[in-house]
Amino acid sequence: MPNRKTGRSAKDRLLDAAERLFAKRGYHGVSIRDITEAAGVDVAMVSYHFGSKRALLTAVFERRAEEINVERLERLEATRRGRGRLDLEQVVNSFMEPLFERMARGGRGWKSYFALLAQVNNSPEFAVLMTRNFDPVVHKFIEALQSALPDADPRDVYWGYHFLTGALTLTFAETGRLDRLSGQLCRSTDSDGVRARFAPFMAAGFAAVARRRVGEAAAAPRRARR
Fold first, then answer.
1. What is the pTM of this model?
2. I need a labelling partner for 28 at 20 to 30 A (CA). Which of 19, 76, 83, 167 fits?
3. d(CA 173, CA 181)
4. For residue 13, which of 70, 59, 68, 66 has the smallest C-alpha distance?
5. Are 6 and 105 contained in the same domain?
6. Cβ count near 213 (within 10 Å)
7. Are residues 109 and 154 in the same domain?
8. Tens digits of per-residue pLDDT, 35-82?
């Protein structure tokens, strides 16, 4: 039954409360009772709608993933239209911009989701959530990176993605360490500052590693002749 004040169903309120609490305190720092009290529903509603606390986490994680993935693929397809070789920075942007737009303008729910995403992406315990919800799109993104960097060693592209996603999840965590290190010159909550710098920085990193590998390959025959 929808809440008279908010118009939101008990299921939606549970998802909202769980998302907020998991993001703030971690999965193991939150009890089912904590969630149901925050949602204003009976404890039995978790079992009724989801079955278990773990299933509730899965539902929270899946709820926003599809929206992100759809837009990522749309943006990636747009970068392909009318082009020969893909532009590296635009490929990175097609993957990141749906996240950054929501981080900057999406409101508290999206902020909580991205903080939770940062936790899950750094936890072997919950790796299956990343695999199930994001790997199919990640593989398409990596294929696009390889098309934009045709001479790159595939290992370098995968390592580049690894570095990218690590920087991304640290950014989502908004720990405030950047603020302290920079003497408040930079703010970890500055979403627009992140957006202006992330794709150019990452694209340059991918390109630099690919150039180094090509240079090493070209130098190998010269060394062999000496």
1. 0.85
2. 167
3. 16
4. 59
5. no
6. 16
7. yes
8. 999 999 999 999 999 999 999 999 999 999 999 999 999 999 999 886
